[in-house]
Structures are given as C-alpha cells and as structure tokens.
Amino acid sequence: MANILIIDDSPTETFRFKEILTKHGFTTIEAVNGEDGVILSKSALPDLVLMDVVMPGVNGFQATRQITRDPATKHIPVVIVSTKDQATDRLWGKRQGAKDYLVKPVDEAKLIETIKHHLNVK
Predict the structure, then answer these.
(1) CA quadruple 104, 59, 32, 68: dihedral sign
(2) pLDDT per position as a tens digit, 29-59
(3) Could you give the CA distance from residue 119 to residue 55 in angstroms, rounded to a whole number?
C-alpha cells in the first residue's frame, strides 16, 4: 500500500494520523517540521504528504510550495491538514500547490477518502 509522509510538529496529531493510516493499510514516515519534511520528501519520495500549517521555522505553506515546485517532488500530492479554517487559508494552501485542504480535527472517513482520491485508489 501507499507510503504517506506526515509533516506535523504535534506528537499527538502525528500519532493519531499514524494510527488511522496503518489501520487502513498505509505505511507512514514522519517529519516534525516543514524543513525536515521537504528534505524527507526528496529522499523518501512518499506517495502522498499530509501537511500541517502551523509549525516553527518553515511553515506548512512554505513547505508545500517547496515540495510542489521542485521537479523531484512535484508529482507528490500534498494534502494540508490544519486547524486554520479560514477561506483565505484554504485559498492560500491551494495556491501553494496543495491538492486538498482538511481541517483538524479531521474525520477518519474523510481523511481516508481524500487520500484514496488523490492516490486513485478504490
């Protein structure tokens, strides 16, 4: 099954995502900030990235832009999963190259549906 890169500075959120994803047959790798996430996306080439926005250093919008504009990683779909719920946040995330934008706390069924949609998995 697909390998998902979780980029989130919250150990609690990362644990929850990992628990949900492994239950549904996905493998996961984790990065605790945007900078490490960008580096890991290049070395691991995951099938999809779940991206938090509010992180120290390189935030999720900046990391999304770097991943989606780099020739080595631009094919990897990035799904932003954030507590930021304003229409402007959603618009800005999409402008940075995100394929989708989900709001925390995210519903498990919606998360899996969104991931499968972007991986073209039934």
Answers:
(1) positive
(2) 999 999 999 999 999 999 999 999 999 999 9
(3) 26
